[in-house]
Write a structure and sequence with these properties.
This protein has seven helices and six strands; from the N terminus they run ααααβαβαβββαβ. With about 180 residues, it is of the alpha/beta class. It starts with a helix and ends with a strand.
Length: about 180
């Protein structure tokens, strides 16, 4: 009768031990350790000590893989063009990762009034960079974000910027620029 409880305790203990080992590895050593086995690779992706130290950088060609991953990345950098499928893919990715994200950087080339025009809650987001090269971006997506310490932004409509600043009174670093 106690076997499932014992298995859960044993699993959480092994996760804790693995977590303690991994905090001492460099990112390159963590990457090498992910090659040990499929199970080890999957386990690595679930540990906070790993996810807090990885910045997942993604461009258009990697969006579909990022949508399907089981990992809960804390830090994302996404670079996209203006293709409609890319815009929808980024919106799905942000919905999926919003509970886990601590930092987010988006670089967008081309016009884009049609992206991120709805609020997405980012409860843990502390650093946000949005670089729009050609076009404007509504700030509605960030209106429910209230823990930002760093905001670097261009190409955002004025009302969206004001809302973001009001929602985040504890900003420590603010950079606003225009191309």
């Amino acid at each position: 009768k106690n076997q499932p409880t014992q298995e859960i305790q044993k699993k959480s203990q092994s996760d804790a031990v693995l977590d303690q080992i991994l905090i001492h590895l460099t990112p390159k050593e963590m990457l090498s350790s992910s090659l040990v086995s499929t199970n080890f690779y999957k386990q690595l992706g679930k540990l906070d000590s790993v996810n807090d130290r990885i910045v997942m950088k993604c461009n258009s060609s990697g969006l579909d893989l990022l949508e399907k991953t089981e990992r809960e990345y804390s830090h994302l950098e996404i670079t996209i063009r203006n293709a409609k499928w890319e815009i929808h893919s980024v919106e799905r990715i942000l919905d999926r990762f919003s509970p886990f994200l601590k930092s987010l950087k988006i670089v967008k080339f081309g016009g884009f009034q049609n992206i991120l025009n709805r609020a997405v809650p980012f409860p843990n987001l502390t650093a946000l960079e949005v670089h729009v090269i050609g076009g404007r971006l509504s700030g509605v997506a960030w209106s429910e974000t209230s823990n930002l310490k760093k905001l670097v932004v261009n190409g955002i409509v004025e009302d969206g910027l004001v809302q973001c600043l009001i929602s985040n009174p504890h900003l420590e670093e603010l950079i606003i620029y225009e191309n």
